Amino acid sequence: MPTICGVLNPLTIEITQLPDAVEIENGWRSFTVDVGSAIVTIEVRPRIWKNLVEGSQQYGNWTATITGRMGELTDVGFVLEHPGIQVFETQSTQKA
């Protein structure tokens, strides 16, 4: 069967909790996210980690969107390459 070329668009992961990160070197942080079918390992620069922490403290209800490309496979998932993180305030869905 002939094969055609395609492009894998960046992956998107959403989180609503600040992950427990480990400092690996030069201020870089590493953490994992369980997305159901895989455990994604994410390593971020100090500036990106700082923005995530500040956003989680600034907003009462927040969601962070993490984008990147699928990288090296691990035993339980994969490494997310070139991660970018944006933090957004979300509205509470509770009714009075």
The strands making up the biggest β-sheet line up spatially as: 1-5-6-4-3-2
Gap from first CA to last CA: 59 Å
Count of spatially separate domains: 1
Mean pLDDT rating: 92
Low-confidence stretches: none
What's the main sheet like? 6 strands, mixed
Radius of gyration: 16 Å
| Strand-residue proportion | over 45%
Number of helical segments with 4 or more residues:
1
- What pattern of helices and strands is seen along the backbone? EEEEHEE
Structure write-up:
This protein has 96 residues and is mainly beta. It has one domain (18-89). The chain is built from one helix and six strands. It has a six-stranded mixed sheet with strand order 1-5-6-4-3-2. The longest helix has 13 residues, at 46-58.
Question: Brief description of this entry?
Answer:
The chain has one helix and six strands; from the N terminus they run ββββαββ.
Task: List key phrases describing it.
1 helix, mainly beta, 96 residues, single chain, six-stranded mixed β-sheet
Layout: helices, strands, pairs:
Elements lengths: L10 E5 L6 E4 L2 E7 L4 E6 L1 H13 L3 E12 L3 E13 L7
Parallel strand pairs: 4-6
Antiparallel strand pairs: 1-5, 2-3, 3-4, 5-6
